[in-house]
User: Fold this.
Amino acid sequence: MRCPRCSTEVTDALPTCAGCGFGIADLDDLLGEPPPCRGRVTDDAKLLSPDGLVRIEERARAFEGRTGTELRVVTRETTKPVKPGEYAFWLFNRWDVGDIGGQDVNRGLLVLVAKAERSIWCEVGHGLEGLVTDAAAGQVLEEHAVPFLARGEVDDGVFQAVDVLSQVVEGGRERPPLWRRILGGAR
Ligand SMILES: [Zn+2]
Assistant:
Protein backbone atom coordinates (compact mmCIF):
# COMPACT_ATOMS: atom_id res chain seq x y z
CA MET A 1 0.00 0.00 0.00
CA ARG A 2 0.95 3.63 -0.22
CA CYS A 3 1.95 5.96 2.59
CA PRO A 4 -1.06 8.23 3.22
CA ARG A 5 1.24 11.22 3.76
CA CYS A 6 3.65 11.02 0.83
CA SER A 7 2.50 8.05 -1.33
CA THR A 8 5.76 6.14 -1.02
CA GLU A 9 5.21 2.36 -1.24
CA VAL A 10 4.98 0.80 2.22
CA THR A 11 4.58 -2.95 2.47
CA ASP A 12 5.29 -4.58 5.81
CA ALA A 13 2.77 -5.23 8.52
CA LEU A 14 4.10 -2.50 10.82
CA PRO A 15 5.17 -0.08 8.19
CA THR A 16 7.44 2.86 8.54
CA CYS A 17 7.56 4.99 5.42
CA ALA A 18 10.99 5.33 3.85
CA GLY A 19 9.89 8.60 2.29
CA CYS A 20 8.68 10.57 5.31
CA GLY A 21 9.16 8.39 8.38
CA PHE A 22 5.42 8.11 8.96
CA GLY A 23 4.46 4.88 10.72
CA ILE A 24 1.65 2.99 12.32
CA ALA A 25 2.98 3.82 15.77
CA ASP A 26 2.36 7.52 15.03
CA LEU A 27 -1.29 6.68 14.47
CA ASP A 28 -1.53 4.48 17.58
CA ASP A 29 -0.51 7.50 19.62
CA LEU A 30 -3.34 9.53 18.09
CA LEU A 31 -6.06 6.89 17.85
CA GLY A 32 -5.49 4.48 20.73
CA GLU A 33 -7.03 1.02 20.60
CA PRO A 34 -8.67 0.03 17.31
CA PRO A 35 -12.44 -0.57 17.39
CA PRO A 36 -13.42 -4.25 17.41
CA CYS A 37 -13.94 -5.85 14.01
CA ARG A 38 -17.48 -7.27 13.93
CA GLY A 39 -17.06 -9.44 10.85
CA ARG A 40 -17.12 -8.39 7.22
CA VAL A 41 -19.22 -5.31 7.97
CA THR A 42 -18.65 -3.18 11.07
CA ASP A 43 -21.33 -0.48 11.01
CA ASP A 44 -20.17 1.53 13.99
CA ALA A 45 -21.80 4.75 12.73
CA LYS A 46 -25.14 2.96 12.15
CA LEU A 47 -25.40 4.17 8.57
CA LEU A 48 -26.74 0.94 7.06
CA SER A 49 -30.18 -0.64 7.22
CA PRO A 50 -30.38 -4.27 8.43
CA ASP A 51 -31.19 -5.44 4.88
CA GLY A 52 -28.45 -3.31 3.38
CA LEU A 53 -25.93 -4.69 5.80
CA VAL A 54 -26.86 -8.28 4.94
CA ARG A 55 -26.65 -7.59 1.19
CA ILE A 56 -23.18 -6.05 1.54
CA GLU A 57 -22.04 -8.85 3.83
CA GLU A 58 -23.20 -11.48 1.33
CA ARG A 59 -21.43 -9.78 -1.57
CA ALA A 60 -18.21 -9.58 0.45
CA ARG A 61 -18.55 -13.25 1.41
CA ALA A 62 -18.99 -14.29 -2.23
CA PHE A 63 -15.97 -12.21 -3.22
CA GLU A 64 -13.85 -13.84 -0.54
CA GLY A 65 -14.97 -17.31 -1.61
CA ARG A 66 -14.07 -16.63 -5.24
CA THR A 67 -10.75 -14.92 -4.69
CA GLY A 68 -9.33 -16.22 -1.40
CA THR A 69 -8.98 -12.66 -0.16
CA GLU A 70 -10.65 -10.58 2.55
CA LEU A 71 -12.95 -7.60 2.22
CA ARG A 72 -13.92 -5.53 5.26
CA VAL A 73 -16.31 -2.60 5.48
CA VAL A 74 -16.34 -0.15 8.37
CA THR A 75 -18.39 2.97 9.04
CA ARG A 76 -17.21 5.55 11.56
CA GLU A 77 -18.81 8.72 12.91
CA THR A 78 -15.48 10.46 12.36
CA THR A 79 -11.83 9.65 11.75
CA LYS A 80 -10.62 12.65 13.76
CA PRO A 81 -7.94 13.59 14.52
CA VAL A 82 -6.60 12.01 11.33
CA LYS A 83 -7.74 12.03 7.71
CA PRO A 84 -9.91 9.16 6.43
CA GLY A 85 -7.04 7.78 4.32
CA GLU A 86 -4.77 7.64 7.34
CA TYR A 87 -7.49 6.02 9.44
CA ALA A 88 -8.13 3.35 6.78
CA PHE A 89 -4.39 2.66 6.48
CA TRP A 90 -4.14 2.28 10.26
CA LEU A 91 -7.23 0.10 10.67
CA PHE A 92 -6.26 -2.13 7.72
CA ASN A 93 -3.02 -2.89 9.52
CA ARG A 94 -4.47 -3.14 13.00
CA TRP A 95 -7.17 -5.55 11.83
CA ASP A 96 -4.62 -7.52 9.76
CA VAL A 97 -6.97 -7.44 6.77
CA GLY A 98 -5.98 -10.00 4.16
CA ASP A 99 -3.41 -11.79 6.27
CA ILE A 100 -4.83 -15.15 5.25
CA GLY A 101 -3.93 -18.06 7.51
CA GLY A 102 -1.89 -15.77 9.73
CA GLN A 103 0.51 -14.96 6.90
CA ASP A 104 1.43 -11.35 6.38
CA VAL A 105 0.30 -11.19 2.77
CA ASN A 106 -2.18 -8.24 2.79
CA ARG A 107 -4.53 -9.88 0.29
CA GLY A 108 -7.46 -7.72 1.20
CA LEU A 109 -9.50 -4.56 0.85
CA LEU A 110 -10.90 -2.25 3.52
CA VAL A 111 -13.72 0.12 2.61
CA LEU A 112 -14.19 2.95 5.11
CA VAL A 113 -17.12 5.36 5.27
CA ALA A 114 -16.58 8.39 7.51
CA LYS A 115 -19.82 10.19 8.32
CA ALA A 116 -18.54 13.54 9.58
CA GLU A 117 -15.94 13.78 6.81
CA ARG A 118 -18.55 12.72 4.19
CA SER A 119 -15.89 10.46 2.77
CA ILE A 120 -15.50 6.93 1.43
CA TRP A 121 -12.07 5.37 1.13
CA CYS A 122 -10.66 2.02 0.01
CA GLU A 123 -7.38 0.72 1.37
CA VAL A 124 -5.89 -1.79 -1.06
CA GLY A 125 -3.61 -4.41 0.47
CA HIS A 126 -0.19 -4.93 -1.04
CA GLY A 127 -1.18 -8.47 -2.07
CA LEU A 128 -3.87 -7.10 -4.40
CA GLU A 129 -2.05 -4.17 -5.91
CA GLY A 130 -1.33 -6.15 -9.08
CA LEU A 131 -5.10 -6.40 -9.62
CA VAL A 132 -6.36 -3.05 -8.40
CA THR A 133 -4.25 0.02 -7.81
CA ASP A 134 -5.07 2.66 -5.22
CA ALA A 135 -5.88 5.05 -8.05
CA ALA A 136 -8.23 2.55 -9.71
CA ALA A 137 -9.97 1.85 -6.40
CA GLY A 138 -10.42 5.58 -5.86
CA GLN A 139 -11.93 5.92 -9.31
CA VAL A 140 -14.37 3.07 -8.64
CA LEU A 141 -15.56 4.81 -5.48
CA GLU A 142 -15.87 8.14 -7.25
CA GLU A 143 -17.89 6.73 -10.13
CA HIS A 144 -20.00 4.06 -8.47
CA ALA A 145 -20.38 4.88 -4.77
CA VAL A 146 -20.22 8.65 -4.41
CA PRO A 147 -23.32 9.34 -6.57
CA PHE A 148 -25.43 7.25 -4.17
CA LEU A 149 -23.76 8.57 -1.02
CA ALA A 150 -24.31 12.14 -2.18
CA ARG A 151 -28.06 11.43 -2.21
CA GLY A 152 -27.90 9.86 1.25
CA GLU A 153 -28.36 6.35 -0.18
CA VAL A 154 -25.69 4.72 1.94
CA ASP A 155 -26.80 1.09 1.52
CA ASP A 156 -26.56 1.36 -2.27
CA GLY A 157 -23.39 3.44 -2.22
CA VAL A 158 -21.50 0.97 -0.07
CA PHE A 159 -22.93 -2.00 -1.97
CA GLN A 160 -21.75 -0.51 -5.26
CA ALA A 161 -18.31 0.10 -3.81
CA VAL A 162 -18.04 -3.50 -2.64
CA ASP A 163 -19.60 -4.97 -5.78
CA VAL A 164 -17.53 -3.10 -8.35
CA LEU A 165 -14.26 -3.42 -6.44
CA SER A 166 -15.00 -7.15 -6.16
CA GLN A 167 -15.65 -7.38 -9.89
CA VAL A 168 -12.35 -5.68 -10.63
CA VAL A 169 -10.42 -8.19 -8.52
CA GLU A 170 -12.49 -11.22 -9.57
CA GLY A 171 -12.04 -10.40 -13.25
CA GLY A 172 -8.55 -8.94 -13.07
CA ARG A 173 -10.01 -5.79 -14.62
CA GLU A 174 -8.06 -2.60 -14.23
CA ARG A 175 -9.50 -0.09 -16.63
CA PRO A 176 -12.67 1.96 -16.27
CA PRO A 177 -14.04 1.08 -19.74
CA LEU A 178 -14.12 -2.57 -18.68
CA TRP A 179 -15.95 -1.77 -15.46
CA ARG A 180 -18.49 0.16 -17.48
CA ARG A 181 -18.91 -2.78 -19.80
CA ILE A 182 -19.37 -5.14 -16.88
CA LEU A 183 -22.00 -2.86 -15.42
CA GLY A 184 -23.58 -2.00 -18.73
CA GLY A 185 -26.19 -4.74 -18.63
CA ALA A 186 -27.17 -4.15 -15.05
CA ARG A 187 -27.87 -0.44 -15.02
ZN1 LIG B 1 5.54 8.72 3.64
